[in-house]
Specification:
Layout: E1 3-6, E2 9-11, E3 17-23, E4 33-38, E5 45-50, E6 58-59, E7 67-72, E8 77-82, E9 91-97, E10 114-118
Parallel strand pairs: 2-10
Antiparallel strand pairs: 1-3, 3-8, 4-5, 4-9, 5-6, 7-8, 9-10
């Protein structure tokens, strides 16, 4: 994989985490990038995405107002600030390119992801 996710952990409900995605893809700045997650027993789902130029963020309804996506193309980095975390946010989080038309991931090759567990 050309990405490496980090920053996950165990946090109590209402807490915060900041996830990081480091890319080694030289074309990182050309792609709309997103965070996806897979909760236990569920399909992987789109969480948040941002266009190549840093504008027009996209958020799943379930995280709007709580999560903030950002990126730095020069550093080939993508971040996800997660506030007011809830138990239903528990999942493995991944970054990948995404298609704006349908929020589908671009690359078949995924990183290891980073585990986020929200529990008291």
């Amino acid at each position: 994989a050309q990405v490496e996710e980090s920053g996950g952990g165990l946090v109590e409900p209402g807490g915060s985490l900041r996830l990081s995605c480091a890319s080694s893809n030289v074309f990182f700045g050309n792609f709309a990038m997103a965070w996806f997650r897979r909760a236990p027993g569920k399909e992987r789902e789109f969480v948040a995405g941002m266009l190549w130029n840093g504008g027009d963020p996209y958020y799943a309804d379930s995280v709007k107002g709580r999560f903030t996506i950002s990126r730095d193309n020069a550093k080939k980095m993508l971040w996800l600030q997660m506030d007011n975390l809830q138990p239903e946010d528990t999942a493995v989080y991944y970054c990948n390119g995404f298609y704006v038309a349908d929020y589908a991931p671009v690359f078949d090759d995924w990183g290891q992801g980073t585990q986020v567990t929200v529990s008291s």
